[in-house]
Each structure stands twice: as structure tokens, then as C-alpha cells.
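Incident log, support desk, overnight shift.

02:14 A customer reports that sequence design results differ from what the structure should imply. Their input is reproduced verbatim below. On-call engineer (initials T.W.) acknowledged and began investigating.
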């Protein structure tokens, strides 16, 4: 298995896109299926944004000052996703706004992931060596085990607060 940071993050993106598609397919089905998929989406996003906020983003910001604006925009996009995730975590799948809120979350995350993959990950890959990307990836792998898994976990909330006050 690759330890390259960008490979790892793109694998996460792929899994998110798969869950988003599953949710879209489940829009007409039973609410319990949508609830189950949203739980999975919230877990995937909580872990992923945690690893990016705690490792990838600060590292890129430090090593590649030219990408500062991209990183700042990414933190803000995570913040919007954090708010939607926290609201969804407190909402029941039977709520009339559940599908609408999930759809807005999916649209936001798809846009964000697209920007990471198209606009600034390639610049990071070009500027950093393979060893550096592997070292960042190894730190993310180590951190993943203890990463928060729900939007209301203390570590997830601390991450969200740090990102807007840093
Ligand atoms: Fe991100
Ligand atoms: Fe990402």
C-alpha cells in the first residue's frame, strides 16, 4: 500500500464519491437506508478533514507559501462542511430537510474535492519530493487510528474551532 499523502487523500475522495452516489440512489427508498449512508458519509468526512486540517494543510502551508490562498480557501470550505455535518448529525432522517441538507453537503464537498485534485494537489506533487509526500502520508496513517469519527467528538470540534481561530 502506498504511503504517499496525495494517493491516500485521493483514495478517501474516491470512497466519499462512492457513498455520495449510494445516497443519491437511496433518495427514493426507506429513510433508514439514507440514515445509514449519512452516518457513513459523516464518519468519512470527519476523519478526512481532520487529517487534512491537522497534517496536510499546515504542512503544505509551511512548505509552499505560494499555495497559501488555496489552503485558506480549503479551510473555509471545510468549515462549511463541518457546520452541515454537525447539523446532520443532530437531525433525523425523517426530517423534511434531511435530503436537502445532505444534497447541499454533497455539492459542497464535490466542489471542494475537485479543487483539491485539479488545482493544488498537482502543484504539491510537483514541488515536494516523493520522500516528503511519503513522510506526510505516514503521519496521516499514524493519526488515523485516533482520529475523531463523528462531527460531535471533542477532537472534531477542537479541529473546527482551531481552523477558524488559527
Ligand atoms: Fe479538503
Ligand atoms: Fe480532501
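02:41 Re-run completed on a clean worker. Output:
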Amino acid at each position: 500500500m502506498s504511503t504517499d499523502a496525495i494517493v491516500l487523500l485521493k483514495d478517501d475522495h474516491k470512497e466519499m464519491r462512492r457513498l455520495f452516489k449510494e445516497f443519491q440512489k437511496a433518495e427514493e427508498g426507506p429513510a433508514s437506508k439514507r440514515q445509514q449512508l449519512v452516518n457513513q458519509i459523516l464518519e468519512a468526512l470527519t476523519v478526512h478533514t481532520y487529517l487534512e486540517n491537522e497534517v496536510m494543510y499546515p504542512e503544505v502551508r509551511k512548505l509552499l507559501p505560494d499555495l497559501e490562498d488555496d489552503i485558506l480557501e480549503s479551510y473555509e470550505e471545510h468549515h462549511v462542511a463541518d457546520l452541515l455535518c454537525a447539523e446532520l448529525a443532530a437531525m433525523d432522517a425523517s426530517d423534511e430537510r434531511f435530503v436537502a441538507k445532505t444534497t447541499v453537503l454533497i455539492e459542497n464537498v464535490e466542489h471542494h474535492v475537485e479543487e483539491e485534485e485539479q488545482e493544488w494537489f498537482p502543484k504539491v506533487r510537483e514541488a515536494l519530493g516523493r520522500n516528503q509526500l511519503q513522510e506526510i502520508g505516514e503521519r496521516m496513517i499514524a493519526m488515523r487510528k485516533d482520529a475523531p469519527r463523528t462531527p460531535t467528538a471533542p477532537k472534531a470540534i477542537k479541529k473546527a474551532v482551531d481552523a477558524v481561530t488559527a
